[in-house]
Every structure is written in structure tokens, then in C-alpha cells.
């Protein structure tokens, strides 16, 4: 910084009263300082409560060492001084010598403001991809380096774990990539906590069950019960990757459980938890178990009519979607050759035939519950050809239902390729290189469609940490709102709350699901068997999308409304105000509030322009006593003011493009 600018800074600090903030750098705190790369006279300081402050060295030597002095330099000071100068300019004539002096001051203030913005930008640079970050090769599955930067850890957790939690971030920062990936996939570190969260989730599921009129004491499942249980796990589970993958498979094996009319029905209601359990219990472990389990899953059979597929009255719905959507895809992603023809659809229909709707008596209420049962008399035993012309898959024979499902996975070359492409496209980026499809499919087939090794290989790959994997897709509404709530670091709602708190907690979960729905996505309720149209990844027919389906005018508006609703609901559950939840109790400085919300909570880095807009928003307020609507400039905020502004600050930052991408 030039001498004259340094002198002006000193004069400005003294004029604005900031000299009272001048402090000594001591041997105890010198390690908490560093120079800003933007200008050697500016320093960044991590204070004892973890808030970063920006200031200037008051010595011309520009050295950070014990005994030197520094002064915090806030935007409020420049804003107040700027307003004071502008006010004075309005009161004097342009021909006055004082006018020219004030104009010179104003120009210097603008220069100073830009210099400060550059220093601030540099001080928060741990969220910026540097030349040494995200250097992975985009087409490589080889493991990335183990020592991750803060930005790389945050990137991985935001991609596949709703932002993770403090412990997962600690593992990534301190232990490295491999321990973090193991923690995400295996989850063995969190068994005790996971068990407690699961117990709580079941409690909040039960709150949404319905009482049976016919069978006193019987609790009947509703769709909202399944949704609230899933949401509780997504918000609080120490295993967020498991919950993220559960939602991935729910879109893959797409069933709209609301349209089944299973809820509020003593006969069919158990089909809801059974379907969700099939997905969640196998989400990180076994694709084969899910694919084979769908054959007689009550929800899937109702959705695609396989409980009405008999040798004398074939129904092709399930067989067609089993191949096109669940296991093969219409076209091989490597050879671009069709994976099956209409003759194979007819053959698969015969192989999957034989199921019908039955019932069983459920204890202890002696009520009848719907089940799907196989009857050999209704199954086709005809010898037919399937997958003609496809190497290793073409055959002419008869199959039992599960036998055919396993045959498809083990013998058709397109099965593992299809699943490998979908996994990589959703987890990393939609455009999947053929080489990666080939490598992952071989590994998947070698492991018998067990998932852990393949998931770990993707998570720790060079491709995951390449620049091509950064911000490639629009987050789904479920991802965006779930990560927002997790960022608030709420204490999990427990079962020992009083009745009013339990009701508030249940309503928060229910209301959150409504807001997600308003923004275009309802948990466990995709609009069709094809899942969510134009969601991130590989869609029907091999068509790639980057989340364009979430970008309707109304859906974008409702995302912001969803944020506001979350900010309004949280204090009711916790019986605390938002400021105490998000910020240190003694913090009233709005600049530090911007820092904590953006950097510590939402894990993003603001550009100088974005930060400038937010600083202006936080430092000014309408003067209700002035009919012209002038703004009052504030340097420090009262607790009431901070609480009032904080809600919109969170939602403004959350609405930035960078937080909406993954």
C-alpha cells in the first residue's frame, strides 16, 4: 500500500474512533495472524471464538510479530464515514474549497473500500479452489491424494452427504480422505449415535400413525409417517451418505407411495414401511437385494401391476420397467446397442408371472394385511428366448422370477454398466466417460453387485476431486433444504421433549416436507416410474441432465419461501431465538455475523461484490419515522436487530447460485 494511503488509513482510523480498537500483537496470539496476500499492510486475525477479523498494521514495517500494533477495520467504519462525507457535500456549494477537499476524501474512501474488500476476500480464501486444490484427473478412478483441503472436504460432503456434520468434517480435515470415505460408507464409528437417532426417528414416525376405528390399539401407517421418519434421519443421522443413497434408490426404483392409497388402510398400510426398509437397508450394501426384492414388494407390485401378471393374463408393466429402468437401460452406455427388444419384454413378463394379492392375519389384532404371494399354477413355465443376439445373455429356457432377475445381473453385459453409469453420474457428474463405466462395471460385477467397494472407489477418486466435478448440477429441493437445516447445527429432537415441543418438532418435519414439495420434490413420491424429470444424472434413455427440471419459476420462488419457513419454525422447536442458535451469544457485529453464516454454517465463500451487498443489507435499516424511507446506518446491532436481520441473511446467502449447485 502506498505511503499516502497508509497515512490516510491511520488518519481515518483515528477520526472514526477506531483507534480505541488498536491492540498489541503478543507472543500468545501472534500465530493467529497472517498477512493478506492482497496487501501486506492488511492482516487477518482468528479471534478466540473462531471469527475472522480484518485489520491494518499501524506500523509502517508491515510485519506480524510480537510487539506490533494492529487495528480492526470494519465496513461499518467506511460506510459511516462515506455517509458523513456525502451528507456534508450536500450542505456546501461546489465552488467552495471545502467541497473539493471532501470530494478528494470521498474518492480516497472508495479506494480504501476496494482495498479492504480485496483483503477480506483473501482472508476467507480457504473456501476458494487454489491452484493446488481440485487437481484430480477428470477421467480417473485412481485414489486422489489423502490430505484434503477444507474446500475439498466440504465439496465431498456437500455432494453426497447433505453437507455432513462437524465430526465428518473433522475426520476429513485431520485424518484425510480414506478415513472420511470409510466413515461415510461403513459408519462403524457412529454406531451408538446412529442407534439413538434411529430410535428417535421411529418415535417421530409413530406420531404420524393413525388410530384404527375397527381394531382398537392398532396404529396404521400413513405416507407422512414414512416421510417424517426419512426427514428426521436425513437431518440428524451421523450417516448422511446412507440417507442420501436411500433417496437415490427411491428415485431409481421409483414408486409414488401416496398414489398407492396404502395409507390409513388397515389392509395395505404395512406395504409403506416394507418398501422404505427394502431401500434403506440395502442402500449402501447390496443392489442385488433391492432388485430381486422388488419382484414381490407389495408397493412395487401394486405400482407396476406384477401382482396381476398371470400365465393366462400377462401384464408387461413390471417386466418392461425392470429392464429399462431398474437393471439394464434401453441402450448400452458403451456400445450404444439396444439391451433388449420387445421379444425380451414378452419373455420377461412370462418369467415374472405367478404373483397375486393375498392376505394374512396380523397379530395381535387379528386384522388382515395385504401380501404378495407366488403361486406356481399362475406362473408360465414355457421355454422362450430372451436377449437374442446379445453375447453371454442370449438364451432359450424357462426361469423362475428371482432366477431371471439374477440371470440379468450376472449374464447381461449391460446390467453392471447401467448401474455404474447411474452411480457415477449422480455422485460426480452427469457426463460419464466410457472408460469409467467400464472400470466400475467390472468391479460391480466382480463383487456380485455388492456396493461398498464401488461406492468407496467413486468417493475417493481423482474424478470426484477434479475441477470438472465442481458445481455441475442444481441441487434438488430435498438436498438444498436438508443441507440448510443440517447447517444450522440443531440438536436432534429427542423423545423426552414436553408435549408442546414434540408437536412443534413433528410440525417442523411435516412443514419441511410441504416446502420441499412446493419447490418441486416430494419425498418417496416421484411423479412417475421414470423418477424426477431432468434431475441431475442420467435420465430415461441415457439422456443426461444437470437439474434443469428443478428450475421452474414457481419452484425457484418456493425455495426461498422454504428457507424463510425453516428460519421461522426452528426457534419454535428449540424454544430459543435464531441468533443464539447460529451465533456466539455476545456477538452483535453484523460483519462477523456474515462471516459465521457464510463460512461456518453454509460453507461458502463470498465474492467481494456479494459481501458488499450483504454488508449494506446488514448495516442499514429503514427509518420508520421518515416518510421518504431513508436508511439509518448502524455500526453495531442490538440483539433484537440482529435476530430480525439474521433470518433474511441466512436465506439471502442460501439463495446464492453457489449454494444451489453441487
Q: Report the end-to-end length measured between terminal Cα atoms.
A: 38 Å
Please count the helical segments.
Answer: 26
Shape: elongated
Averaging pLDDT over every residue, what do you get?
85
Q: How would you describe what is shown here?
A:
The protein is α+β, with helices and mostly antiparallel strands and 662 residues long. It has a domain of 121 residues. The protein is built from 26 helices and 16 strands. The strands form 6 sheets. The chain has a 5-stranded antiparallel beta sheet with strand order 1-5-4-3-2. It has a 3-stranded antiparallel beta sheet with strand order 8-9-10, with no helix packed on it. A two-stranded antiparallel sheet has the order 6-7. Strand 13 and strand 14 form a beta hairpin. It starts with a helix and ends with a helix. 43% of the residues are buried.
Set out the fold topology.
Elements lengths: L2 H13 L7 E2 L8 E4 L2 E8 L5 E6 L11 E4 L2 H16 L6 H27 L26 H11 L5 H10 L1 H9 L5 H16 L3 E2 L7 E2 L2 H14 L3 H13 L18 H12 L4 H7 L4 H7 L3 E2 L7 H11 L14 H10 L3 E8 L4 E8 L9 E3 L8 E3 L3 H11 L1 H15 L6 H13 L5 H8 L17 H11 L11 H20 L18 E2 L5 E2 L7 H22 L3 H5 L7 H12 L6 H12 E3 L8 E3 L5 H16 L2 H4 L2
Antiparallel strand pairs: 1-5, 2-3, 3-4, 4-5, 6-7, 8-9, 9-10, 11-12, 13-14, 15-16
Helix pairs in contact: 2-3, 3-24, 4-5, 5-6, 7-8, 8-19, 8-20, 9-10, 13-14, 16-17, 16-18, 19-21, 20-21, 21-25, 23-25
